[in-house]
Amino acid sequence: MRVSHLSLTDFRSWPALELDLDAGPTALVGSNGQGKTNVVEALGYLATLGSHRVSADAPMVREGAERAVLRGQVERAGRSTLVEIELNPGRANRARVNRAPVPRPREVLGLLRTVLFAPEDLALVRGEPAERRRFLDDLLVLQTPRLAGVRSDYERVLKQRNALLKTAFLARRSGGGDMRTLDVWDSHLARAGAELLAARRALVDALAPHVTAAYAEVAGGDGEPGLTYRCSLGDATPDGNDRTVLAEALLAELARLRPQEVDRGVSLVGPHRDDLVFMLNRLPAKGYASHGESWSFALALKLASAELLRRDSSSGDPVLILDDVFAELDLSRRRRLAAAVTGFQQVLITAAVLDDVPGELTAHTIHINAGAVVDG
User: Fold this and answer.
1) Under 8 Å CB-to-CB from 306, ≥6 apart: which residues?
2) What per-residue confidence (pLDDT) applies to 221?
């Protein structure tokens, strides 16, 4: 899989951009603030309907414009598909495939698969659990696009249930309250939560050996990584990934914790409370890993994701994006990372200084300066 052409209108700093992209590695080079990261952010959005930089769409629309349009020509399995997203802050976004509208933007998920690594991904190792949950869920959707609906359903149910818990707290203080509505939402949360939980646990099991191999590649064999999925069910977590069994366990824990949940007005059990724990040499990577080790671990997670997707899909390799990564690595890690990514069908690299990028990744170089693109 690769993107042969990217077109942007009023996206970030780009009033307009028409960019042809080659197979193999391509380096986008230019000083900071010239728009390199905006280009790869657009590609990531076409693949995931999300940005690695912001959580809302409004900052991605150029100042003074009402909307932004992103178009990517995707080549995969001998077919060419035009994927288009129209960002409309304050209104519903729109999507088209080969110029034809689709009912919902998430219908385009799976047509383009990207794995993006950026300096922000260091938060996967050093940041809060929400970062790691998002990593897992984003990868799940890339792997199995229908899980976008499960993820959305769970978030909707959780929001509604938390609102009801707050209402129940106020009602109990006044001596009233009817818990029957909450019982219904417990069932919805358990059902959607069980499917999300089972998918995450299966993903971690599949990802773990690839993380071990990728860490050995980028760190030169120095260190033993490990992944553990920590479920909010604690000791009540069932073995295996049977959805019915998991839903029953979630329901039982919701019932047990209801008094505390009503007191606090939040849901205390479910996938939104889980975490993915990273270990390095049998110690938690968060708090014990050095800066270099943390970078290697974060890189290994993304390389493992790309390897899992390439083995899992008939669409070929995902597009691998390395955003301003090489400047953060020492020379030996640069060389090892270059060796690890050269086999992918398309690799896009951004860098402020061309010399930071190993020579084998600069066969195609595009210079970006003052909002203009110049082939190198």
Assistant:
1) 115, 317, 318, 320, 344
2) 74
Number of domains in the chain: 2
249 falls in which pLDDT band (50, 70, 90)? Answer: very high
Contacts of 106 (CB under 8 A, 6+ apart): 49, 145, 148, 149, 152
Q: Give per-residue pLDDT as tens, 177-188.
A: 566 788 899 999
Rg value, the chain, Cα: 22
Which residues have C-beta within 8 Å of that of residue 324, sequence separation ≥ 6?
36, 37, 118, 119, 350, 351, 352
pLDDT at position 170 is 74
Helix, strand, or coil (residue 242): coil
* pTM recorded for the entire structure: 0.91
Q: Residues 114-125, buried b or exposed e (16+ Cβ, 10 A)?
A: bbbbbeebbbbb
Determine the structural domain holding residue 179 and report its residue range.
121-312
Q: Give me the mean pLDDT over the 252-274 stretch.
A: 93
Element (H, E) at 293: helix 291-312
The DSSP annotation for 326-369 comes to GGGS-HHHHHHHHHHHTTSSEEEEEESSGGGS-GGG-SEEEEEE
Inter-axis angle of helices 147-173 and 129-143, nearest 10 = 140
- Among 44, 76, 127, 99, smallest CA distance to 317 is for 76
Q: Is the pLDDT of residue 159 over 70?
A: yes
Whether 41 contacts 50, CB under 8 Å: no
Which one of 295, 312, 329 terminates a domain? Answer: 312
User: Is 315 in a helix, a strand, or coil?
Assistant: coil
Q: Is there a single domain that holds both residue 244 and residue 182?
A: yes
What is the C-alpha separation between 26 and 57, in angstroms, rounded?
27
Q: Of all residues in the chain, what percent carry a pLDDT higher than 70?
A: 97
CATH of the domain at 302: 1.20.1050.90
Q: Are the beta carbons of 250 and 190 closer than 8 angstroms?
A: yes
**Terminal Cα-to-Cα distance of the chain (whole angstroms):** 24
